[in-house]
Amino acid sequence: MGKYSLILWDIDGTLLNFHAAQSVAIRRCFELFRLGVCTDGMLADYDRINEKHWQALERGELTKPQVLEGRFREFFTKYGIPTAVIPEFNEEYQIRLGDTIVFFPNALETLETCKAAGIRQFAVTNGTKLAQVRKLDLSGLDKLFDAVFISDEIGYEKPDPGFFAPVFAAAGNIPREHILIVGDSLTSDIPGGIAAGIRTCWYRRPGQVNRTGLVPDYEITDLKEAAAIALAAP
């Protein structure tokens, strides 16, 4: 066994390209609800609105239901789209998010390497249960994880310490210093890991800059680096 015996993997933005799935899902929903064409500019606006709402959730300023419908309310209002369809639109959107599976480079191979080495792996995600269960199944990731933790089921969102309580309960007697969280978010994954007393690995994708003042234990630009870190001699 290497340096770490348990890895906590974020899903969206770390293993799977969420933006690719998001674009397909929103455009498909626009077609289904006959809302016209969702342009690249509209998608960019939605992305900014969505990120703003999720960060407010992570700060405890909004609830999950407020985020899920509030982002579409702001987006639809900006473009003059009737807001009455939002509940149905959002539910369909959650389903469609799982239709498009795009792995980041070396994601699947890295998980397979760690599993073969005997490292336990948990999924830790703030996504909705409807979307996450579907994408984990269609991607085959569910077969690589020893356990899956979804904020909808737990009742807390990363970085809240309440999210990590059931994770540690499932981990058993693994010392905190032997647990590594790998994620792309400097507002949920990394601060959550730091507060929980485990080691943190920031997956920095092109264009990302750390202006938070947080100092992850590791910073990587290729997911295969995470396997090398986990398998290094203790």
Structure description:
By secondary structure, the chain is α/β, with parallel strands linked by helices. The chain has ten helices and six strands, in the order βαααααβαβααβαββα. A six-stranded parallel β-sheet has the order 3-2-1-4-5-6, with helices on both faces. Strand 2, helix 6 (129-139) and strand 3 form a beta-alpha-beta unit. Helix 5 packs parallel to helix 10. The termini are close together. The mean pLDDT is 95.
Assembly of the depicted chains: single chain
General form: globular
CATH architecture of the largest domain: 3-Layer(aba) Sandwich
State the separation between the terminal residues, measured CA to CA. Answer: 8 Å
At the first level of CATH, what is the class of the largest domain? Alpha Beta
The amount of beta strand, in percent, is 5-15%
Strand order of the largest sheet: 3-2-1-4-5-6
Number of domains: 2
Q: How do the helices and strands line up, and which of them pair or pack?
A:
Layout: E1 6-9, H1 18-32, H2 40-58, H3 64-78, H4 86-97, H5 107-116, E2 120-125, H6 129-139, E3 147-150, H7 151-154, H8 161-171, E4 179-183, H9 189-196, E5 199-203, E6 218-220, H10 224-231
Parallel strand pairs: 1-2, 1-4, 2-3, 4-5, 5-6
Helix pairs in contact: 1-4, 2-3, 4-6, 5-10
Provide keyphrases for this structure.
alpha/beta, DNA polymerase, domain 1, 2 domains, Rossmann fold, six-stranded parallel β-sheet, 234 residues, 12% strand
